[in-house]
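Slide 14.
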Amino acid sequence: MKKEKNQFEQIKIELKKVLKPHRFNHTLGVVKSASKLARQNGIDVCQAEMAALLHDCAKNFSNHEMLQIAKDEKIALDPIMILEPQLLHGPVGAVVAKKKYHVKDPEVLSAIDCHTTGKSNMSTLDKIIYLADFIEPGRDYPGVEHLRKTSYDKDLDMACREAFDNTISYVMRIGGLIHPRTIEARNYMIIEEKYQINKE
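Slide 15: predicted structure.
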């Protein structure tokens, strides 16, 4: 536990140097929200805080840098990610977390990887980091208070479905590209809940 705490504090010092101030403050907010959600849902708090701390570690990379790292690390590149390289900051961030910050926990790396788009069959930790990114205290957008209430007072699946719906609606309104992983994540949860498929 002490070793994990020391690693966390050292990474926080490093990230403060490389992230823009507003991004670092956002990261600390995500850590706070992820910690609360982890406690409420019986998830290892150290895991949640580490994933939250590193979720945007590649956010300041240029599009060229992210595409190059993705190619070098053989991250699957689909047409939408090539057109919108910022979507890669999750998968690339997982690589950076592993190689630069020496994070080995596959659950933490998965949560970093999918925090932007979501994915099918998300773990509880995946859902926590996805939601914490949306509801951290610094976020201020229409509907955020309702999403916070759903996240903290009800259940993660309901909150994730709401977040997916909000994201898809917003991207449609601005004429943007919706990544297939977001559609797949939403559909997986609806199938699991409504049709009782995938549930054990």
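Speaker note: Residues 118 and 182 are 5 Å apart (CA to CA).
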